[in-house]
Amino acid sequence: MKREVAIVGIGYAGFRPLTPDLSYKELVFEAATRAYAEAGINPRTDVDSFISVAEDLHEGTSITDEYVPDQLGAVQKPVQTVAGDGIHGLAMAYMQICTGQFDIVVVESHAKASNILHLGHVTAMAMDPVYTRPLGVHPLALAGMEMRRYLDESGLTHEHCAQVVVKNRAHALSNPLASYPAVLEVEDVLNAPPVAEPLTQLEVSQHVDGAIVVVMAAGDVARALTDMPIWVLGIGFANDAFALDSRSWAQAEYARLAGQMAYRMAGIRNPRATIDVAEIDDTFAYKELQHMEALGLCAPGEAGYLVAEGYTSLEGELPVNPSGGSLGVGHLLDASGLARVLEIVWQLRGDAGQRQIPDVEVGLAFGWRGLPTTSGAAIILAN
Amino acid sequence: MEKVNIVTQAQPWVDRFPLTGRYTYGVAGERFFRELKENGRFFGTRCTACDVVYVPPRLYCLRCFAPLEEWVEVPSTGTVHTFTVVHQDLDEAPLPTPEVIAFVQIDGCDGGLVHRLGEVAPEDVYIGMSVEAVLKPTAERQGGLTDIAYFRPTLR
Predict the structure, then answer these.
(1) A136: burial class by Cβ within 10 Å (0-12, 13-18, 19+)?
(2) Would the CB atoms of A120 and B91 count as touching at under 8 Å?
(3) Residue B12 and residue A115: Cβ atoms within 8 Å?
(4) Å from A267 to nearest chain B CA?
């Protein structure tokens, strides 16, 4: 029989544009201390396995995974690193618990983006060294090209994308963790300096430093640890082609397939009717629209209209990124998906403060690994 | 936990990691770039089962996983599938002249190349525009992507 799995603790540290005072290890230690206190566990005696989601070039070291145990209470324990978005790490933890070999598994991801002096160079190193990198072009060019093709095929407009920025940065006003709250008009976004047309500066999420640690536990263990386990109903992940000549420039196929896997597992046939709140990758404004459509929350070409009419605002039928998303909170590199999960957990527990959505029972979080990848992961959570 | 709360006492250690890598072209890439360098021609590989021509060529079909053995010469003309106007360089400094970057779908192929557009004003570029490759002179070609100087609107 399949084991039930729940989130029994989640902790964070940072979420600030600059953290010159703390090393990334100290950020992780702080987030882990919060998560373990919330779950009421001692990592040295109670945790069976640890998973880190990290990328060597973001850290400026190789074998980043080898650095993980010390600050996480994981020395002399099973530890592994997953490359991808933070939600890929949750998927691995879920599967480890399902083996029956592990009852409590911890997932960690963090961002020390402020220590990366030129993120463009790091992302450029991810592009095909033979067929793309020799152009010496800033990787945001890929986002600009994808956005243009998406708008062309969907029939949506630049204004629709700008609405996403206005909404998410407004949502961030009621999130104390958000670094980029703002009251903006659509014109502000459209008139911002272009970076890779049609993409403007305000449509690109800015970075923050931070760490997030999640404690997951098997059914009965979870019930014994907390009165408010947040259950994993479904989880899924997928990739499109890596080659730029063979992937879709308009559709987020990875999101569609990851969503399908998670919905199938959760037994959800009509995501729009079932999901009460969603936190969806918005690394770039158009990505939120593209991901909403791919995740089946609306018809193709409909996402922009839903945002414009307030359907996805805090007070709307299906709030999307009530936290403010990456545009409002700040982008946490590999930990961005876990920031989406953090908000869904708080919403499901009724702990979301000023931005609490009433009667939340099922939430969706979706993470994308970022340029130039086609890695996506989705998780469906319930209280 | 006592924290560092005097900004001048929050110090980083600064180091560089300058590394040089070799990136093997492989069988397919070797042939693609040799034809481009020596003969100024584009080649792709075809999967007959999927009826797909891959440019750049590869030895395997990513749709059906078949090994690919059929080489086909393809034109150096294509269509702008999508494009962007880039305003910053890799250091995030503003470019003196913004660059047009496009994904050019090569005529008669399923694939194509990301490359620069030249001899055209950014405001005149559109999805569906016909373009052709402008190659560097033979003597300057090194057998790599930049042997193509840029794509430009097809002359009529």
Answers:
(1) exposed
(2) yes
(3) yes
(4) 29
Which letter does DSSP use for residue A322 in this model?
T
**Residue A334 lies inside a defined structural domain of this protein:** no
CA A98 to centroid of chain Cα atoms: 23
Interface A:B, Cβ pairs < 8 A:
125
Q: Would you tell me which residues 95-154 of chain B have a C-beta closer than 8 angstroms to some C-beta of chain A?
A: 98-99, 101-103, 110-116, 122, 127, 144-146
The CATH number of the domain holding residue A64 is 3.40.47.10
Interface contact A245-B23, CB threshold 8 A? no
The answer to whether A18 and A209 have CB atoms below 8 angstroms apart is yes
The pLDDT of residue A1 is above 70: no
pLDDT in tens, A259-313: 999 999 999 999 999 999 999 999 999 999 999 999 999 999 999 999 999 999 9
User: Alpha carbon of B148 to those of A191, B114, B142: distances in Å?
Assistant: 34, 11, 10
Q: Which helix (H) or strand (E) holds A260?
A: helix A253-266
Distance of CA B125 to the CA centre of its chain: 18
Residue B34 CA neighbour count, 13 Å, CB half: 7
Number of independent structural domains in chain A: 1
The answer, yes or no, to whether residue A345 has pLDDT greater than 90, is: yes
Asked if residue A211 is part of any domain, the answer here is: yes
Please, how many CA atoms are within 13 Å of residue A322, restricted to the half-sphere of its CB? 30
| Euclidean distance between CA atoms A59 and A237, whole angstroms | 24
Name the pairing type of β-strands A194-197 and A199-200: antiparallel
Helix count and strand count (H, E) for chain A? 16, 11
A104 belongs to a structural domain: yes
Angstroms from A17 CA to nearest CA on chain B? 15
In tens, the pLDDT along A300-309 reads 999 999 999 9
Q: Which domain holds residue A217?
A: 5-117+207-225
DSSP per-residue letters across A78-95: -EEEE-S-HHHHHHHHHH
CB contact residues (below 8 A), chain A span 43-102, against chain B:
60
In chain A, residues with a C-beta closer than 8 Å to the C-beta of B122 are 197
Mean pLDDT of all residues belonging to chain B: 95
Contact B147, B32 (CB under 8 A): no
Cα radius of gyration rounded to whole Å, chain B:
21
Whether A271 is in a domain gets the answer no
A119 Cα to chain B: minimum distance (Å): 8
With CB atoms and an 8 Å threshold, state whether A21 touches B4. Answer: yes
Q: C-alpha distances in angstroms, B106 versus A104, A250, B47, B112, B151?
A: 52, 18, 16, 5, 11
Residue A26 vs residues A13, A78, A112, B73, B142: alpha-carbon distances, Å: 9, 21, 11, 57, 48
Neighbours of A247 (CB within 10 A): 17
ipTM: 0.96
Residue A98 to chain B, least CA–CA distance (Å): 31
